[in-house]
Amino acid sequence: MSGRATRGPSDPLGLLSKILALEARKGYQDTAVTGGLAAFIAAHARAGRADGPLAELARLFADYHQLSPDQRRARVAQAERLLRGDIPAPAHPPVDGRAAARLSAATRRASTPPTPRRRPGGPVRVASLREPVTALPGVGEQRAKQLASLGVRTIEDLLYLVPRRHRDYSRIQPIGSSLFFRHECTVQGQIVSVEQERTRTGKTMVVAEVADGTGSIRAIWFNPYLARQLRPGMQIALSGRIEHQRGILCFRNPEWESLDEAMLHTGRLVPIYPLTRGLYQKQIRHLTRLALDATAGLIVDPLPEEMRQRHRLMPLAVALEQVHYPASPEDERAARQRLAFDEFLVLQIGLVQRKVEWQAQAGHAFRVDEELLSTFEARLPFRLTGAQSRALGEILADMARPRPASRLLQGDVGSGKTVVAAAAALVAVADGFQVAILAPTEILAEQHARNFTRLYEVLPEARRPRLALLTGSTPGRERETIATGLRSGALDILVGTHAILEEHVEFARLGLAVIDEQHRFGVLQRARLRAKGYNPDVLVMTATPIPRSLALVLHGDLDVSIIDELPPGRQAVATRWIESDRRPDAYRFIRKQVEAGRQAFIIYPLVEESEAIDARAATVEYERLATEVFPDLRLGLLHGRMRPAEKDAIMTAFRDHEIDILVSTSVVEVGIDVPNATVMLIEGADRFGLAQLHQFRGRVGRGAARSYCILVADDVSDEGQRRLEALVQTQDGFRLAEIDLELRGPGEFFGTRQSGLPDLRFASLGDLATLQQARDEAHRVLSADPSLSQPVHRALRERVDRFWVRGAGDLS
After folding, report:
1. Which band of pLDDT confidence, cut at 50, 70 and 90, is reported for residue 483?
2. Which of 368-372, 554-558, 579-583, 801-805 has the lowest mean pLDDT?
3. Are the C-beta atoms of residues 537 and 422 closer than 8 Å to each other?
4. HEC string of 136-164?
5. Cβ of 679: how many Cβ atoms within 10 Å?
6. What is the signed CA dihedral for 19, 24, 26, 32, rounded to 10 degrees?
7. Is 401 within 8 Å of 367 (Cβ atoms)?
8. φ, ψ of residue 436 in degrees (nearest 5)
9. pLDDT tens digit string along 168-214?
């Protein structure tokens, strides 16, 4: 076969003698070679004669893995006697004479096998997992800084440093067997020669020839330092991919290690870790191995035995070993499953605990004025959908109980969450309480104030809630009036932005807090709003559909109501994806819509042009559109750098049809309601997330006229193509959210880390089965031991406390 490794020396028995000596030094644990002695000898025997000594040794070691250490000792001694006898060498085809001579010379030079490198003073031991990594030998100040950039500061951090993947070098082959180009494998043998050569470009490469008795192969490294580490006569293992070099098969930059050491880099599933400047895979493997050995006996499993058995999970110490150095791919998957379960469990215990603690406090049992509520619903210009009625019923049932309620109201764009919140607020006001409605932007707060006011106009004037709007733009004198009205109880509902959270804003009797698009608020802001009342009920609203798995993580301490039905008359928005050469067609279509009395949005991903990103910027494009494309139409510009008053003025003008086309950045993503707008054109659509694109699309289709969404994008990546195709194919926001989560991962799902999303290293939010198991287990544990004070739960309580202190925080 062309390109085969060259045939080599015909004496594999010397190598086997050294391996048997190594097996004796290791205490007859069948660890001298990866995969065990039986497989190793059988592989070499297949390359020799059927009646030769290797075949006899293969039969002798066939059941070696099943023997006790004492039986293995006797079997090794028997093999050594066999090797010392006058045994003729098995016949092989002719070999490269120069390689044979070099191997013979190398063997003579290596008259004594190299001794394994040992750390002075024996194995490393540490007192605690919390000790700094500098407690490990070889970790000084500089190395500690490098590890800190990977989030590793303690020995425990090192144990939980997740390999990105594993390379499978577990298949050990005789060199003389069929080694194919680009085939990944491991070989073990003796170094015949080590030379340094110059490449055509002047680089130095180290070339070693390695032979195992069945053949020889060259290994090449472009690291001159290795010439001082490798020496003829050394027994080493090589792992890597077979490459061509000048027409001969070879290893190029393979992993290597001495056979006298525990195998970390070759002959097994080899971990590949995240790296930082100046830190290499071999160094991190060495440190994780040290950490695992140093903490043997210190790892306390936080899961009770019966819980582990119920979910068929491996012990924690075993899982940590197998996630780094697995015996098989199945063991690595089982290890990750165990560690993912741990993360989900401590997260869910914290969420369930907080929900129980919050609901154990005294709250308000609101009396529902059924007559007023019926009047409100009957006089609305539309009927509530079944989903709206169901959600309102769940919220009112919470409010009627004498404990604080925490509920998430989820609904797709245009599903009618506002009227449900308005009905809940009306019930609170009718029972003598005040309501705070917190929105993330001034535009959205103003829209809520306008919509609530309009909805309440159907009520008799004496029964209408008294409402005020408080934002950063509210003048000082008006702020004073609002503050006085809140303290005296003259104001019933305060709608506003972060300004509501200021210290001087005091409520006389806050009973209900409504938080819209709550993932845009930080932990402290939400806690501050709760603190403005005596355990008020909390209603969280979001128009960003959240997959069930993410909802359990972000809002696991909330009850959930979902409005999954659009009101009658809401039409699907026709969606198309075009490339930029079709942009003139899109402009003509927008012009026709404007001539028919409609309005349009044109969205850009940036405010101003950037050299780093080739994206059309809103400011530049606004000028071009206004002067070259639509000079006869009324255009407006909206972006996040404008002052709040400017934004409000532009949005008001657009809403009142004083503007035909609104050129904007993503500031229009949430909540803006202009029923007359029928076209949404999104430039650079592949630069937005799928959930965000769906929000943009939701800005149109709010009136009776048919509406359209046009996506413009060129040279789209595979992931971007999947996003755009998904948007074209479905209008279901919840399905789109699931696809978005799959494509981008939870860290990018909201486009911000402010969501409070905890750092999950092993758990995947797509693994709903494990997440649900952990949530069920959290309920089971806390129902039996609410404070985790029983001895069997002590380690689990410590793990939960540390997780929540570290920053998962208040997610509700």
Report:
1. very high
2. 554-558
3. no
4. CCCCCHHHHHHHHCCCCCEHHHHHCCCCC
5. 22
6. 20
7. no
8. -110, 135
9. 888 788 888 767 777 888 888 899 999 998 888 888 899 999 998 88
Instruction: Copy the structure tokens of residue 233.
Output: 């006569």
Tell me which residue of 662, 647, 665, 650 sits closest to 606, measured CA to CA: 665
How far does Cα 538 stand from its chain's mean position? 29
For 744, residues 6+ apart whose C-beta sits below 8 A from its C-beta are 689, 690, 719
Residue 632 has pLDDT above 60, yes or no: yes
- What phi and psi values does residue 558 have, to the nearest 5 degrees? -110, 145
Between these two residues, 587 and 200, which has the higher pLDDT value?
A: 587
Map residue 313 onto helix, strand or coil: coil
Q: Which of 642, 601, 651 is nearest to 444 (CA)?
A: 651
- What type of residue sits at position 159? L
Predicted confidence at residue 103, as pLDDT, reads: 41
Instruction: Determine the 3-state secondary structure of 238 from DSSP.
Output: strand
Sequence letter at residue 146: Q
Residue 322, burial from CB neighbour count under 10 angstroms (0-12, 13-18, 19+): buried
Kind and range of the H or E run holding 272: strand 269-272
Contacts of 388 (CB under 8 A, 6+ apart): 415, 416, 419, 420, 563, 565, 567
Contact 786, 552 (CB under 8 A): no
Strands 204-211 and 184-198: antiparallel
Q: What are phi and psi of 83, to 5 degrees?
A: -70, -30
Nearest residue to 546 (alpha-carbon basis) of 691, 347, 698: 691
What separation in angstroms does the CA of 143 have from each of 264, 278, 286?
20, 9, 13
The closest of 595, 570, 524, 546 to 707, measured between CA atoms, is 570
Terminal alpha carbon distance of the chain: 67
Strands 216-221 and 248-252: parallel
Between 362 and 1, the more confident residue is 362
Closest CA to 445 of 478, 465, 474: 474
- Measured CA to CA, the distance from residue 208 to residue 432 in angstroms comes to 87
Residue type present at position 312: R
**Residue matched to tokens 């149109």:** 700
- If you compute the radius of gyration of the chain from its CA atoms, what whole number of angstroms results? 35
Report residue 479 as tokens: 């702020």
Residue tagged 């010379």 (tokens): 105
Longest dimension (CA), the chain: 114
CA distance 218 to 197: 13
How many other C-beta atoms are found inside a 10 Å radius of the C-beta of residue 753? 10
How is residue 489 annotated by DSSP?
T
Residue 344 · residue 774 · CB < 8 Å: yes
Alpha helices in 295-328 (DSSP H): 305-311, 316-324
> What is the Cα–Cα distance from 566 to 413, expressed in whole angstroms?
9
| One-letter identity of residue 445 | A
Give the angle subtended at the CA of 707 by the CAs of 654 and 596, to the nearest 5°: 65
Q: Which structure tokens are listed for 82?
A: 């066999």
User: What count of other Cβ atoms lies within 10 Å of the Cβ of residue 193?
Assistant: 20
pLDDT at 759: 66
pTM of the entire structure? Answer: 0.61
**Assigned token pair, 742:** 């799959």
Residue 467 burial by CB count (10 A; 0-12/13-18/19+): exposed, middle or buried? Answer: buried
Neighbours of 485 (CB within 10 A): 17
Q: What is the mean pLDDT of the chain?
A: 82
pLDDT tens digit sequence for 703-741: 888 999 999 998 888 888 888 999 999 988 878 877 877
CA angle 607, 611, 612 (to 5 degrees): 95
Structure tokens at 682: 């999104």
Residues 6+ away with beta carbon under 8 Å from 460: 375
- Give the rounded distance of the alpha carbon of 198 from its chain centre: 45
Q: Which long-range contacts (CB under 8 A, 24 or more apart) does 22-26 make?
A: 22/259, 22/260, 23/72, 23/76, 24/73, 24/76, 25/116
Higher-confidence residue: 311 or 639?
311
